[in-house]
Design goal:
The complex is a heterodimer of chains A (about 110) and B (about 120).
Chain A lengths: L3 E4 L2 E5 L4 E7 L4 E9 L5 E8 L4 E4 L2 E6 L4 E6 L8 E9 L7 E3 L3 E6 L1
Parallel strand pairs in A: 2-11
Antiparallel strand pairs in A: 1-3, 3-8, 4-5, 4-9, 6-7, 7-8, 9-10, 9-11
Chain B lengths: L4 E3 L2 E4 L5 E6 L6 E8 L3 E9 L2 E4 L8 E7 L2 E6 L8 E8 L13 E2 L3 E5 L1
The chains are: A mainly beta (about 110), B mainly beta (about 120).
């Protein structure tokens, strides 16, 4: 069974700190990996998508990396702000027949303290 | 673009009642997904459609759940009869393999969810 794990489940940091969120997956035969943000009471918003052939993607203060061989991805947030407080989820789309579905981790709840 | 639209946003119903959740995907998207989110299990795919045809319903928990997509702009997820363990947030999402508008091609767009409580 394909599994996506995110550790820690919750993280609290002071404003301005750089931080890293972790995501691991059990099967390296992935098509792509996405990082999402979910605010309380809201749906998910896609932040970054890394194709299997890529090693990283950047958007503003966010940088996501992908290491398929070790089954890991990280989301780096630079100079964190209180507005970054949310739950961050990673999701993997696996290769192969019938592979359109995403498998999600349970997320890391981030709190940035002013 | 209005995004993925779901209704109702919140519903409280009694055990045994029928629940119908509705979704309007983004215009032009040819994939539609229904997910369920709970604290214990996280986000789980229930079913997805391609061009209005159900492709994979292996995530549908049991026969009490059914989903339809009568046309490209509308889908329903029905629970009959509902049970307390069905309480969750149900998300609809859509995407297109040919969507080049997003910063990251063929990304998936989620609605804001339908919060279901069965008492």
């Amino acid at each position: 069974k394909q599994e996506v794990t995110q550790i820690p489940a919750a993280l609290s940091v002071p404003e301005g700190e750089n931080l890293v969120l972790n995501c691991s997956f059990t099967d390296s035969a992935i098509y792509n990996l996405q990082w999402f943000r979910q605010d309380p009471g809201k749906g998910l918003t896609s932040l970054l998508l890394i194709q299997s052939s890529q090693r990283e993607q950047t958007s503003g203060r966010l940088n996501a990396s992908l290491d398929k061989s070790s089954g890991r991805s990280t989301l780096y947030i630079a100079a964190s702000q209180p507005g970054d407080s949310a739950t961050y989820l990673c999701a993997v789309r696996y290769s192969g027949a019938g592979s359109y579905q995403l498998t999600f981790g349970k997320g890391t709840k981030l709190s940035v303290i002013p | 673009d209005a995004g993925v639209i779901q209704s109702p946003r919140h519903e409280v119903t009694e055990m045994g009642q029928e629940v119908t959740l509705r979704c309007k995907p983004i215009s032009g998207h040819d994939y539609l997904f229904w997910y369920r989110q709970t604290m214990m299990r996280g986000l789980e795919l229930l079913i997805y459609f391609n061009n209005n045809v159900p492709i994979d319903d292996s995530g549908m928990p049991e026969d009490r759940f059914s989903a339809k997509m009568p046309n490209a702009s509308f889908s329903t997820l029905k629970i009959q009869p509902s049970e307390p363990r069905d309480s969750a947030v149900y998300f609809c999402a859509s995407s297109s393999e040919h969507d080049n508008r997003a910063p990251f091609g063929n990304t998936i767009y989620f609605g804001e969810g339908s919060w279901l409580t069965v008492v």
